[in-house]
Amino acid sequence: MAEYDDFSFELREHRGLDSYESSAREVLRDFFEANDSQVFFGNQLAIRNEDRFFHWITYRALSELVDEELLKSERRGLAIGSELKLFWHRRHRYYKRDASRVVQLVNEYGSPNMCAAVGLHGEQMILGGFARRQFVLRDHGARVYGDRKWEETEHNLDFIFERDGVAYGVEVKNTLSYMDENEFQIKIRMCEHLHCSCIRSSDAAKELDDRVD
C-alpha cells in the first residue's frame, strides 16, 4: 500500500453497531451539517477525531453516512500514484472546485521536497521541545541503548531521550496516512528490547488539516 493512501489500514471485524460507533456517526453527522459547503478527505477526518474515536471507527461511521446518502464520496488519484477518498455533504452541489483544491494540497504535501522539509522541521521541533523540558538527547537514528542492541531488523529509532533515569524512544513522522502497522509493532518491540518508553510524533497531517480549512 502506498505511503499516502487514504485509510491505508485493515478494517476490524464489524460486529454490529454499538454505542461507540453510534456516537462517532452522530459526531460526523453534526460536523457535516455544520460544514455542508466543504470537501474533506478520509484521513483528515480520522485525525480530527482521533482523540475520541479509533480511526477505523471514523471510517465505518463515514461509510454508514454514505450508505444513508447524507454524504457523497469519490476517489481521486494523487500524483504519487495512490488515491484519496473525498467526502462532502449531499447539499454541496458544486463540490468539484473544492475537491480539486483538496487534492492539490495533498499533492503538495506529498511531494518529496515538501516531505523532506516538513520532516526536518518536525525533528527540530522535537529537539527544541524536549530540550525545554530538560530531556537529554542520548542518540539519533539509534539501535543501541546502554548495553542493549536491536538486531532483529534494520530499523532504528529517530531519537532516544532520557530524563530522571527513564529512556524514551521517539519516532517523528510527517506522512499523511497512519504509520504502517507492521513498522509500528517493530518500533514498540525495539523500545521494549532497549528498555525505552515509546513516543510517536506526527505533524504533517495536522498542518494539512489546518490548511484545508
In short:
This protein is α+β, with helices and mostly antiparallel strands and 213 residues long.
Q: How would you describe the overall organization of this protein?
A:
The structure is a single chain. With 213 residues, the chain is α+β, with helices and mostly antiparallel strands. The chain folds into two domains: 92 residues, Arc Repressor Mutant, subunit A (Orthogonal Bundle), CATH 1.10.10; 84 residues, Trna Endonuclease, Chain: A, domain 1, CATH 3.40.1350.10. Helices cover 45% and strands 23% of the residues. The chain is built from seven helices and nine strands, in the order αβααββααβββββαβα. The strands form three sheets. It has a four-stranded mixed β-sheet with strand order 4-7-8-9, with helices on both faces. Helix 6 links the parallel strand 8 and strand 9. Helix 2 crosses helix 3. The two termini are 27 Å apart. The relative contact order is 0.14. About 6% of the residues have low confidence.
